């Protein structure tokens, strides 16, 4: 997918791009890896808050034009290198950044946090945790200074993948871990938007037989639906209820026929 002018205006409920102050594309199935696909960000001079959490974004170059940006949410994307911070270093008003659960975080949380703070010393909050003066001082010692942009990456078969080697360690998820991941993922999204968490007994996991890519897509679809529900009025919810009922009946009928 690509963020178009029409899509941005619709999401932000604005009449023109220079009137967009907040853009929420959280869990919006934006499996993006090329700067051109989020190039619309270059045309948002007054944007203050951007939420791109739970997508497949890996390149941040277009964001370096957002000089009024103060809050940026990029949790759970495909950012493979901390060198992407190069594009955020010249954003004078950036105070809040949520970057956790990206490959670039690696296996050493201290090194990751120190590197981010060394390059973005104006941050007041990183990954939903307040930044202290002590941390900023320590970052000058333990953090790595980023002086160049990252290498280019690509995408194959619809699943974003980094060409660069990631420092993040691969893990094998059991069925139980998948359930915890999905529930945690949904509730973190809702937390970012100021919504109440979903109880475990109201949440269902996905089949472990699915491929990793398909499972993540389905998880993102569910999260997107949950987020959009709060925007609907009673009449719209009734339409959805009727549509879901018909869909369930069709699926049940198909299952009976297959048996």
TrEMBL record:
The U2A'/phosphoprotein 32 family A C-terminal domain, residue ranges: 109-127
Cellular component terms (Gene Ontology): ciliary basal body; photoreceptor cell cilium; U4/U6 x U5 tri-snRNP complex
SUPFAM superfamilies to which the protein is assigned, alphabetical: L domain-like
Functional note: Plays a role in cilia formation and/or maintenance. Plays a role in the regulation of cell morphology and cytoskeletal organization. Involved in DNA damage repair.
Region (Disordered): 150-176
Official protein name in the record: Cilia- and flagella-associated protein 410
Key words of the record: Leucine-rich repeat, Repeat
Organism name: Haliaeetus albicilla (White-tailed sea-eagle)
Pfam families in the cross-refs: HIND, LRR_4
């Amino acid at each position: 997918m690509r963020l178009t002018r029409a899509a941005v205006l619709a999401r932000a409920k604005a009449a023109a791009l220079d009137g967009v102050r907040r853009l929420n594309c959280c869990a919006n199935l934006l499996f993006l890896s090329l700067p051109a696909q989020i190039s619309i960000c270059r045309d948002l001079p007054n944007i203050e808050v951007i939420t791109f959490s739970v997508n497949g974004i890996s390149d941040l170059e277009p964001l370096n034009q957002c000089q009024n940006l103060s809050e940026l949410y990029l949790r759970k994307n495909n950012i493979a290198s901390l060198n992407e911070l190069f594009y955020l270093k010249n954003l004078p008003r950036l105070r809040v950044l949520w970057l956790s659960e990206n490959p670039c975080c690696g296996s050493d949380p201290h090194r990751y946090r120190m590197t981010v703070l060394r390059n973005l010393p104006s941050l007041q909050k990183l990954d939903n945790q307040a930044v202290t003066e002590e941390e900023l001082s320590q970052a000058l010692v333990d953090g790595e200074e980023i002086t160049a942009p990252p290498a280019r990456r690509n995408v194959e078969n619809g699943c974003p993948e980094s060409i660069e080697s990631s420092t993040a360690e691969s893990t094998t998820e059991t069925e139980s871990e998948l359930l915890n991941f999905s529930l945690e993922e949904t509730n973190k999204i809702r937390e970012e938007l100021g919504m109440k968490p979903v109880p475990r007994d109201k949440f269902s996991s996905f089949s472990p037989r699915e491929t990793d890519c398909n499972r993540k897509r389905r998880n993102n679809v569910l999260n997107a639906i949950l987020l959009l529900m709060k925007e609907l009025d009673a009449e719209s919810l009734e339409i959805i209820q009727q549509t879901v009922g018909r869909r369930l009946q069709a699926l049940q009928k198909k299952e009976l026929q297959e048996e």
